[in-house]
Amino acid sequence: MKVDEFGLIRRLTGRVPGTAADVRIGIGDDAAAVAFPAGTDVLVSTDTMVGGRHFLPATMGMADIGYKAAVASISDIAAMGGEPRHVLVALGVSQEVGPDELDRVYDGIGDACRAFACAVVGGDVVATDGPLFVNTTVLGWVEAGRAIRRGGAQPGDVVFLTGEVGSAEAGLRDLLQPEMTAVVHPADRADVRQAHQRPTPQVAAGRIFAAEGATSCDDISDGLASELNEIADASGVRIRVDERRIPISTAARNIARQRGEDPLEYAWYGGEDYQLVGTASPFVFARILARCESIGVKVAQIGRVEAGDGVVADRLAGGIDIVLPRGYNHFPTDA
Amino acid sequence: MKVDEFGLIRRLTGRVPGTAADVRIGIGDDAAAVAFPAGTDVLVSTDTMVGGRHFLPATMGMADIGYKAAVASISDIAAMGGEPRHVLVALGVSQEVGPDELDRVYDGIGDACRAFACAVVGGDVVATDGPLFVNTTVLGWVEAGRAIRRGGAQPGDVVFLTGEVGSAEAGLRDLLQPEMTAVVHPADRADVRQAHQRPTPQVAAGRIFAAEGATSCDDISDGLASELNEIADASGVRIRVDERRIPISTAARNIARQRGEDPLEYAWYGGEDYQLVGTASPFVFARILARCESIGVKVAQIGRVEAGDGVVADRLAGGIDIVLPRGYNHFPTDA
């Protein structure tokens, strides 16, 4: 790449929403200045995706990379029950990546920001001799003291889940080995690929969970097994899941069947669905269910919180097992 | 590296300050939740350093890399007149980097956070096949509407500078070619190396500039020439600098003399001094001068704002020249 850095940043930031009523100073100064509503806490999360590790040319186009990097951080704000507002982007760019490809990355970031009413208020583009990396930081807000933590689950609480899980993993496998699902319906293929490349964070549902008083919440970036173990550990409780109640899309089931795999494995360990999993008292859960239904978001009870520790599953095939948190881990101990 | 990611993050974050009165939820949940004072705007800036581009094994130890990554973002908050509060760190780690070296990076981040009363509230560690990268995002606050922009300089304003410039560039050159300064005093060498490896952002001065109403401010990351051109462009004014008034440290002058170089070149184009350069009316400047003196921070008038455009210098050797913004640029047009 041989372009002027300042010129490049102007070119890229022209492709994303940069202003909003609460943005006092956006891109172009030393720092952004933003105004949050009175009586709120500021939420902030950062997430990094690296070429060859989090995405491959075969699985993600440049625009998908930008979109997913942004929604991964937006989803963290959703998991706290917050309203995402502002995005900062740090790009590490190798020689092989040209300005047109960076345009596509920013187009994807722009798609995500428009979908979730966020403004891009900061950025940094640096050269690297290594693979492309995209770091996104998202700021948001939640009513003061109302952020939903992982550690509040209580015995007797309902364990619930938005939408369906397993699709993102089915999509990844299908993208890597399309020949294995030669006779699958094109709509199923499109569904699961979309779930992998353009996942939808559950911002509106998270806002309802915070308003109604869910006791814990996590977004599913690393798989249901990993996220539920985090909630169980942080809360000092046992989470018991009924496998028959885990909602898995028809498309994911069809892909799994073609591949001779168990779609429940996708759900437990696949990750990247960016659905929300959480806990609430039965009374609060009833209110959550009604409010989510009214906005067209499916929420399902998948289990119960009990005294004890860890995650256990009533298996579809019968019997009860401990579910260990072997989700995605960038540095596996046994690699 | 073969360590568990969650275990690694716990190990690293144990090395840095993680709590503060305004941190409601720190590291360990989906996002951090922080409370800012009423009547403030939130400032946020992100900065990325990449191995082989922003640092080399010969110039920066692992702890220096962490320290400098943190202060680069802290300095951006200082340049807006704000109070830095919270730091998020995203690390990209290659196979060759072991846990002990990451400990050192976090030790450096911890040093910076303790020096400037910041808490680390978020982090992300990812694997990369490329060089080490360190991204830092800093949140801070400033009284609502008081952030100092680049674009407010007015003809008649004083142009001023904190501390001394040129030392960081002298330090970098000395680190890269120590044989060229064989007879320099060890104290001078230590001074300029410290300036390169452990620069001090001017947070307290920035707070005074905001309180008193400076009309513009920038931190010197890319060199005086580049920063002053940014202020001139953003403000639609000409900035006229008297070279005789640019404060350059004795140590930097001594290094430059040994190397047969012009210390003014370091000052104009070297960058990374993280001093603040700004503008204010003569009346406001007098107040700034007095208040900075009372806290032991040197501030010098180096020029004037005039009608026109660009940056011009009254040369030490006589004559007037236009000063172009050829500071550090990651993607030079003529590379």
Oligomeric organization of the protein chains: homodimer
| Structural class by sheet pairing and helices of chain A | alpha+beta
**Beta strand % of chain A:** 15-25%
Helix content of chain A: 25-40%
The CATH superfamily of the largest domain in chain A is PurM-like C-terminal domain
The gyration radius over C-alpha positions of chain A equals: 20 Å
Please explain how this structure is put together.
The first copy, chain A, is an alpha+beta fold. Chain A folds into two domains: 5-143, 2-Layer Sandwich (60s Ribosomal Protein L30, Chain: A), CATH 3.30.1330; 158-322, PurM-like C-terminal domain (Phosphoribosyl-aminoimidazole Synthetase, Chain A, domain 2), CATH 3.90.650. Helix content of chain A is 35%, strand content 24%. Chain A has helices at residues 5-13, 62-79, 99-115, 167-176, 186-197, 203-212, 224-235, 250-259, 263-269, 282-294; strands at residues 23-25, 32-34, 40-50, 83-93, 119-127, 133-143, 158-162, 216-219, 238-242, 276-280, 299-306, 311-314, 320-322. Chain A is globular and about 60 Å long. The interface between A and B is large, with 77 and 77 residues.
